[in-house]
UniProtKB/TrEMBL annotation:
UniProt cross-references to InterPro entries, sorted A to Z: CENP-V/GFA, Mss4-like_sf
Keyword flag Nuclease: no
SUPFAM superfamilies: Mss4-like (SSF51316)
Protein name in UniProt: DUF636 domain protein
Record keyword Lyase present: yes
Lineage of the organism: Eukaryota, Fungi, Dikarya, Ascomycota, Pezizomycotina
Keyword entries, A-Z: Lyase, Metal-binding, Zinc
One GO molecular-function entry: metal ion binding
Pfam family, any one: GFA
Domain CENP-V/GFA: 2-113
Length: 142
C-alpha cells in the first residue's frame, strides 16, 4: 500500500497494488498544473484509490485545454495548499491518474520510474537524455 497526501495534509489517500502504468506528461495543462516542465503521473484503477480523510479543501477544475481536445478532464486539487492530487479523464473510464509527487514512497521503500511519455511534441529539448526509452514516447496521447 502507498499513502499520499497534499502538502498541508488536509487530504490523504491510499493506493492498493501497482499502477497500470507510470507516465511523464508534457501536455500544456500538466505543465501548468505542476508548475514544471512535465508532470509525473501514476495510473491506477479507481478501485485501488481511496481518499482516507474527508476534507472540504478538495476541489475539481474542469479542464478543456487544447491538448485534451474535445474532452473535459477533471483535475482534483487542495484549495488550502494548492497541491494537485489526481485526474479523471473520460478517455480512461475507471482509472484515476495520481500525481506521483504526492505519494509517500519512503513509507514502503518503493522507487518510481516512468514507463511512458505523452505529448513529447511539447517535451523540452534538454530532457533528451532523461525519461523513458524512445519506443515509449508518444507525440500525443495513445
Amino acid at each position: 500500500m502507498v499513502r499520499g497526501s497534499c502538502l498541508c495534509g488536509a487530504i490523504k489517500y491510499t493506493l492498493e497494488g501497482t499502477p497500470s502504468t507510470t507516465v511523464l506528461c508534457h501536455c500544456i495543462s500538466c505543465k501548468k498544473q505542476s508548475g514544471s516542465s512535465f508532470k509525473a503521473n501514476s495510473i491506477y484503477n479507481i478501485s485501488q484509490f481511496n481518499i482516507t480523510s474527508s476534507s472540504t479543501t478538495l476541489k475539481v477544475y474542469k479542464d478543456a485545454s487544447p491538448d485534451a481536445g474535445d474532452v473535459v478532464v477533471e483535475r482534483y486539487f487542495c484549495v488550502e495548499c494548492g497541491s494537485n492530487l489526481y485526474i479523471k479523464n473520460p478517455k480512461f473510464p475507471g482509472a484515476v491518474i495520481v500525481a506521483t509527487g504526492t505519494m509517500e514512497f519512503e513509507d514502503v521503500g518503493t522507487g518510481w520510474r516512468p514507463e511512458r511519455e505523452y505529448y513529447c511534441k511539447r517535451r523540452g529539448e534538454w530532457l533528451e537524455e532523461r525519461g523513458t526509452g524512445v519506443t515509449r514516447r508518444f507525440q500525443g496521447m495513445s
